[in-house]
Amino acid sequence: MNDTDRAILDFELEHWHYQGNKERVIQERFGFSPNRYYQRLNRLLDEPEALQQQPALVKRLQSRRDQRAHRRIVRDA
């Protein structure tokens, strides 16, 4: 994990109430699109070091990801 990966985890610890604001801050803070940010975050959730550094956060985000995937499977079935 590099400094940007750690910054992404720290950023996810912040509470966000308005999606549009979060997307704007992602672009300002990290310099890449929200899509690129979420792709990177998704890969980061599978990194053992991320789980070691932020276990509660990573497990919560993995659970959300799994729930979304399950809903897509059920919807498309």
From TrEMBL:
It holds the Pfam family DUF3263. It comes from the Bacteria. This is DUF3263 domain-containing protein. The lineage of its organism: Bacteria, Bacillati, Actinomycetota, Actinomycetes, Pseudonocardiales.
